[in-house]
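Wed. Picked up where I left off yesterday with Transcriptional regulator. The coffee machine is broken again, so keeping this brief.
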Amino acid sequence: MRRMIAGMSQEKLGESLGLTFQQVQKYEKGSNRIGASRLWEIARILETPITYFYEGLPVPVATDQIRDPADGMKEEKAASFVVDFLSTSEGLRLNKSFMRVRDPRVRRKIVELVRSLAGEGDDG
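Structure written out below (tokens, as returned):
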């Protein structure tokens, strides 16, 4: 999604990496894994910190802790929802505009406004 926010096509990113747009497509869909050095190069080309690609990932759980297998499914559904949302023109425009708002207090107010308009409570 960062590529789309930056207004860069898959073809242009592929050219910058020496790859085909199909390979970029496979990376984005998760069909192919991205190596650390390749991810570093993508971050450089997109002029974004490498940490951008790790935001929102769950904190690693110690091996002695038991996890509910349903948690992984919840995370996958949430990730799928985000991809679906950002694949729409409205979602992309909303995200681009939201990312331009620098003040965290204003961002929180925007989230509160959208939740209110959507009829969500504080727990949603």
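Quick read: Residues 86 and 93 are 9 Å apart (CA to CA).
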